[in-house]
Amino acid sequence: MSKTQQRELPAFDWDRADNKGFGSGYSVEEHNRMLELYDNTLSEVKEKEVVMGTVVGITDREVLLNIGFKSDGLVPASEFRDMPDLKMGDEIEVYVENQEDPNGQLVLSRKKAKVITAWQKIQRALDEDLVIDGFVKRRTKGGLIVDIFSIEAFLPGSQIDVKPIRDFDVFVGKKMEVKVVKINYANDNVVVSHKVLIEKDLEAQRAQILNNLEKGQVLEGVIKNMTNFGVFIDLGGVDGLLHITDISWGRISHPSEVLHLDQKVNVVVLDFDEDKKRISLGMKQLQAHPWDALAEEIQLGSKVKGKIVNVADYGAFLEIQPGVEGLIHVSEMSWSQHLRNPQEFLKVGDEVEAQVLTLDRNDRKMSLGIKQLTEDPWTRPELRAKYAVGTKHKGLVRNLTNFGLFLELEEGIDGLVHVSDLSWTKKVKHPSDFIKVGDELEVVVLELDVDNRRLALGHKQLEENPWDTFETVFAVGTIHRCTILNKNDKMATLELPYGIEGFSSLKNLGKEDGTFAEVGETLDFKVTEFSKEEKRIMLSHTKTWQEKNEPVKEAKAPKVAAPKAASAPAQAERGATLGDLDALAALKEQLEGRN
């Protein structure tokens, strides 16, 4: 140091340096000025906040950051893996976890800073309706997982595009612009949408399409969705419905039979509602109607072939060619009068031949018949001889009514068995008490009317009328052992010998001890009335004991006359003859064998 420099340096004041320590010799004013200068060089740092830091050192394990605090902070290098080009001087957001740990070190975290700032950016994007960039990481059930600001957000499949997306994998690993539509902080869940961006772009296009839309206008569209009742077609920002009945002139059961998803098709506008923005479309209307091309040789009586395309309760529809169908009514399927369900005769897909019964080309209607291709059984010449009165036949019970049953002897030939012609001995109130549908029954022809297609049949006529014999067995005054079957308010039903029924009024059930006979008792009854025509026998138990107690009247002397056979009552009183017993025994065997 030169002498000149020595002369320019101020003299050191040794009096201010004492034994109180370094820096203790400053005045209060100087001390405050020094603290102010020191504080200006440092930033005010608070814990649990995100601050900007400058990279001042990089090692293999750590990154040293200066945040303007009295000491620098260390952050693990693993938190900078997404920044392979990190260098000295880069500014990074970090989170202050602790101003001073037990080692006196400032504790920082870039990972937490990224999370906090990410949620802040996400909230701002939701509040301000911002468009943000995302990266599709993977697919998940029902949608995609999109990375936005290092936070995983859920993109539902319905929010990817305005049209249904069937393959989510094509978006994985690609960038996508999205908008935040929902935040759930409780579950750290974010929902985003890409569809809303497309919808805004399509709004103007949709308005333009609706303004220029007219009935009969032909448009091109893409099938975006398919249902059982039709397909939805994207017309370029607005959807229209193509109903299944407007796809093809021919009958189809599902649109997928002729169309497929993402297919481009030409359609015509059938109708539209401006308020509800509903558009009805048609595709078959772009083609000529098949009825216009129906061959002229198809006339009344013509035979046609086709496929059954639908079966209803009243008949079946036969498709002669695509778009041309005829109805086969159930009554025209068979000569049988008991075909009630067409599904018993035909099913969808059957290939059948039919005859044209009616044809209206203007109204595009046609009725067909199948039975006309076979001979009408009522017109066969041998019918009169085969079903002559008195001939015996067997048939199946097809239907039961209150007045009788219908028996099918062969296809197309039915006969009626009246309820009164079922049994000689039993009073049948309803045919179901005697037989059931599907049973086989033997009958005899009572009447044949070919012109009116009527056949009267009887079952009881297969046997002789037992009432001719009963007239002698159950003559008035005869006594028989009977069992009471049932009672009502006025009458009791009795079971007589040989399985026939009789009747007794309630007052005639009085017994000698003053009581009345009950159901199930077996007692002697006297015949008081016999009607062969009405097949009715009236009896009385009371008369069996009352007449015993009556005084015997003196009989008048009989006139002398030639001997003659005893009357039926007299015979019954003293017992049946051997001939009667043989006849009754045979009758009993017949009745028991039939029952």
SSE blueprint:
Elements: H1 3-8, H2 28-40, E1 50-58, E2 62-66, E3 73-76, E4 91-98, E5 106-109, H3 110-127, E6 132-140, E7 143-148, E8 151-156, E9 175-184, E10 189-193, H4 195-211, E11 218-226, E12 230-234, E13 239-243, E14 264-273, E15 278-282, E16 303-311, E17 315-321, E18 324-329, E19 351-360, E20 365-369, H5 383-386, E21 392-400, E22 404-410, E23 413-418, E24 440-449, E25 454-458, H6 467-473, E26 479-487, E27 491-495, E28 501-505, E29 522-531, E30 536-540, H7 542-549, H8 568-574, H9 578-594
Parallel strand pairs: 3-5, 13-15, 18-20, 23-25
Antiparallel strand pairs: 1-2, 1-4, 2-3, 4-5, 6-7, 6-9, 7-8, 9-10, 11-12, 11-14, 12-13, 14-15, 16-17, 16-19, 17-18, 19-20, 21-22, 21-24, 22-23, 24-25, 26-27, 26-29, 27-28, 29-30
Characteristic terms for this protein:
595 residues, alpha+beta, five-stranded mixed β-barrel, five-stranded antiparallel sheet, 9 helices, disordered N terminus
